[in-house]
Write a structure and sequence with these properties.
By secondary structure, this protein is α+β, with helices and mostly antiparallel strands. The protein folds into 2 domains: 68-284, 2-Layer Sandwich (Nucleotidyltransferase, domain 5); 305-377, Alpha-Beta Plaits (2-Layer Sandwich), CATH 3.30.70. The chain has 13 helices and 12 strands. It has helices spanning 68-82, 86-89, 92-99, 177-180, 184-187, 194-204, 216-223, 233-236, 249-257, 267-283, 300-303, 317-328, 354-363; strands at residues 124-135, 142-154, 160-165, 172-174, 210-213, 230-232, 305-312, 334-335, 339-341, 344-350, 369-370, 376-377. Helix 9 packs across helix 10. The protein is globular and about 60 Å long. Residues 123-287 form the Exonuclease domain. Residues 34-63 are annotated as: Disordered. InterPro entries: Nucleotide-bd_a/b_plait_sf, REXO1/3/4-like, Ribonucl_H, RNaseH-like_sf, RNaseH_sf.
Length: 378
């Protein structure tokens, strides 16, 4: 009998996702000079053995249990999810619903499941985004969280993986230059857009990649990215004078790092400041003291604004400017996007000068009372 020769079939190569480093993206660099202020000072250390994974009650969203980095930060991810504001702030349905009046033109993305395709990627990143306000020239709809800069830092190496200006889809109606330092001329020739930012994040992140920062939900909403594996410094540190207030990043930096942050936001620096504070949290196994909201001398750029809170959900940003004009006869120059937590929101109203802001406050028909921090409120 003839022996049949064995048939050898060539195995089909396993498809792999393109490396985030190999993406050909039109990155538009931008710097305010403070990006290196909180860069990590690298010291050679002996590699620590991976910690044993703690036992947790299963959650619907994935937990980072497949890598050493994931296990290192696992408790912090869990603690972030236990915060009483987590469910409301990371409810992406509300952000997606807010995009509906914008004509449904905003595409949301969600990272793929962890697997071989991402094992060589950084497993934890720190992020910060800058936003501006844009306006649809056809419908007049405004997008108050249009992405205009994105910065991503590798948690383990402190390498800046991405730092780029982002060209918004619609014309910009408020650059918020007083906050982010970005002006019209900076974005004029930028080609990098929201879809480029999303492509980078999808090539970098799995559903177990830990994304760190301060109020990370705002960054995810700007990128239009649904992600739940987060470590948020806004949730892990408490205010000394309030059980419910969210501590600001400037107060964290001042108390923990003993550094004042610059007035103008720099997203690389902000991502690193949040990361340095979270490293402090991890080093102390979460046993950290409440943070004092230390009073600081008012600067002119702060003195020309009024803080408005307990804003009902039915109120829009543009309504607030009209309210001040109608009730005080003082015109506001601009209003920041309202940040909602639960049923109430908060924002800042900006006036031409401190004198205009003080006049508007004095003209409101209500009794001024001092709050816990000593500031007057009506």
């Amino acid at each position: 009998d003839k022996q049949e020769k064995p048939v050898i079939k060539q195995e089909k190569p396993v498809e792999s996702a393109p490396s985030f480093r190999a993406l050909d993206l039109p990155v538009a660099s931008f710097s305010l000079g403070s990006a290196s202020d909180n860069a990590r000072k690298v010291e050679k250390q002996k590699p620590a053995p991976p910690p044993e994974p703690p036992q947790y009650t299963p959650l619907t969203a994935p937990l980072p249990k497949h890598t050493k980095t994931g296990l290192k930060w696992l408790k912090a991810v869990e603690k972030t999810r236990q915060h009483f504001k987590y469910e409301a702030e990371f409810n992406y349905d509300k952000y997606i619903a807010a995009d509906e009046p914008l004509g449904g033109k905003k595409v949301w993305v969600k990272p793929k499941a962890f697997g071989d395709w991402c094992k060589n990627n950084p497993q934890a990143i720190a992020i910060d985004c800058e936003m501006c306000q844009t306006k649809d020239p056809e419908t007049g709809s405004t997008d108050n969280r249009a992405l205009c800069r994105i910065s991503v830092v590798d948690v383990e190496t402190d390498e800046v993986l991405l730092d780029s200006l982002v060209k918004p889809d619609w014309p910009v109606s408020d650059y918020r230059s007083r906050i982010n330092g970005i002006k019209e001329e900076h974005l004029k020739d930028v080609e990098f857009n929201l879809r480029h930012a999303q492509a980078f994040m999808m090539a970098l992140c799995s559903d177990e990649t830990i994304i760190m920062g301060h109020s990370v939900n705002n960054d995810m909403a700007a990128i239009r990215m649904e992600h739940y594996c987060v470590v948020d410094s806004a949730f892990l540190f408490k205010c000394a004078d309030s059980e419910t207030a969210t501590i600001g990043l400037k107060d964290l930096s001042f108390n923990i790092l003993k550094k004042d942050m610059p007035t103008t936001h720099d997203s690389v620096n902000d991502a690193r400041v949040a990361l340095r504070c979270l490293e402090y949290y991890l080093k102390n196994d979460g046993k950290v003291e409440p943070i004092e909201r230390a009073p600081r001398p008012q600067k002119s750029e702060v003195a020309n604004q009024l803080f408005v809170h307990r804003i009902p959900k039915s109120v829009k940003t543009e309504h607030l400017k009209d309210v001040f004009l109608q009730h005080t006869s003082v015109a506001a120059e601009s209003a920041d996007e309202i940040e909602f937590s639960g049923d109430n929101g908060r924002t800042h109203i900006h006036f031409k000068s401190p004198r205009h802001a003080n006049l508007a406050f004095a003209s409101l028909e209500s009794k001024a009372e001092a709050e816990a921090s000593g500031r007057l409120q009506k």
